[in-house]
Amino acid sequence: MAVSSPDRRRNWLRGHRKQIIGDYLAEARAALAAAAAASLDGEGGEHSAATAALGLVEAVLEMSPRMEAALELRARSLLALRRYRAVADMLRDYIPSCTKPCSADDTSSSSSSSSSCSSASRTDLLSPARDRSDAASAASRFLCCFDISDLKHRVLAGFSKNTSADTQWRYLVLGQACFHLGLMEDAAALLQTGRRLASAAFRRESVCWSEDSFSPSNLTANAISAPASRRASKSGAAGSEAESVSQLLAHVKLLLRRRAAAVAALDADLPAEAVRHFSKVLDARRGVLPHPFATACLVGRAEALRSSGRAADAIADCNRALALDPAFIPALRSRADLLESVGALSDCLRDLEHLKLLYDAALRDGKLPGPTWRPQGGVRFSEIAGAHRALTPRIQQLRGRVAGGEACSVDYYALLGVRRGCTRSELERAHLLLTLKLRPDRCASFAERLELVDEHRDLEAVRDQARMSALSLYRMLQKGYSFIMSVVQDEEAAERQRAKDAAAATAAAAAAAAAAALAREQKETAAVPEKAKISSVSVPSTNVQVQVTQAAAMPTAAMAAAAAMGSPVFQGVFCRDMAVVGTLLSRGGFDRPIPVKCEAMSC
């Protein structure tokens, strides 16, 4: 009986499977090496090479699903393609934050929350719905399910002789993926574990070496005499990967230290110091900053800015965080509180309704939005039910206030960060600073410094969202500036009118005082008798001597009044030059005779 061609091909593949797998793995390693070289040189083409390597590895995994070398190459291919979420889903049992057991409040809140902690690695052994007493159910609570992932790893470790050397790639690859996903604590733990395992493996291998084996030539010979798979892994991980892992670990520790300093300053009621540390993280030019970590830092800086009284800057940071991640619950909470504090009730109501939709989705799905390992800024699933109950009456209250006409009563002074009764210069300075910082074309450029790892949101979508939210805030600032400027102009006009009124009142009072003084002087002048008389006047034919004896007894005011009334004192004596007489009288010494020479004087 002749064998058909499909059966013959199947028999041939079954007999040559080991050889085919080896060839596929060798080609996949070569493609990954080419992709790494292309990425270092900057020539391009690394994406196609990594895609080809991933296709070869997928073919190998179809023939041998549990092959460790194929799993390693698949993880490295996904890492080269920047599909960090796929790497995290593939190795999620090794993420420290996902392997922690569920807390008591999570398990008591709902039955679905307990299964969301590690549902892939847990097996239900006994049904918890048996008819038994409460004491028996409490005693057997720990027998309902147990984690078999550790047991599986230990069993597999017993079959292999060098498990740590074979699985250290998991920690290194997953640590890099966790860094790009924003899981900084997990990345630091995984990278440190990978480095420790690599150092321990090198020490175990170097125990049996002689002293001459550590020379460069002998190291090369030992590497050449090793098998092909081990030689490829050593050549790939010894130099460049170890250096890149060390640099990445140092960068992760620096980011964690700066964030810890910012959080400590915020807890110590030092908002300016917290803003400075958060700005160091967000505005750093060196290194890569993943957008999930940047989102959490933006929300933290918004809280610090709110504590320092800079509401507009805080709202701008919340807008940036929501442009990066529209479902980030802490950012929605912070922006809703900020908008309510400045009186923008309509925008606050919109954010609260969006937050309520997220709460409803979380309660329906039994988990927070996104993957289970995705950071949500400290928000736990056990808090969602209580937050949802507290959110509903708040939304109803805001709707009533909006319906009552309070939607337009925005506190623009708090929004711009100026005091009530500010001057024109203070308002213009605050408005200029906010306009330069919060322009819509500049607010969309912050995403260029970040690394976007979400497959569903690209750079253009983030820019559009940031530009729209920045434009809304910019219009609110312009409206607030116009409102406060009109108030300042009214106050300046009122101040000018008050100054004019005060000047007019002062002038009127001065005129009244002058009139009163003049009337008083006239009364005094009328009361003073005319005591100034001419004692003797001698006029010879050639010389005329005039002696004034009683002119000193007459005051000057009386003389002026007498002159004004038309009764001159020296009438009939001087008829030609009265100015000279007035000058002489003003000099003083009226008790002495004044010689006057008049020639051809006629009266």
From TrEMBL:
<dbReference type="GO" id="GO:0005783">
    <property type="term" value="C:endoplasmic reticulum"/>
</dbReference>
<feature type="domain" description="J">
    <location>
        <begin position="411"/>
        <end position="482"/>
    </location>
</feature>
<dbReference type="InterPro" id="IPR036869">
    <property type="entry name" value="J_dom_sf"/>
</dbReference>
<feature type="compositionally biased region" description="Low complexity">
    <location>
        <begin position="102"/>
        <end position="124"/>
    </location>
</feature>
<dbReference type="InterPro" id="IPR011990">
    <property type="entry name" value="TPR-like_helical_dom_sf"/>
</dbReference>
<dbReference type="InterPro" id="IPR001623">
    <property type="entry name" value="DnaJ_domain"/>
</dbReference>
<protein>
    <recommendedName>
        <fullName>J domain-containing protein</fullName>
    </recommendedName>
</protein>
<feature type="region of interest" description="Disordered">
    <location>
        <begin position="101"/>
        <end position="124"/>
    </location>
</feature>
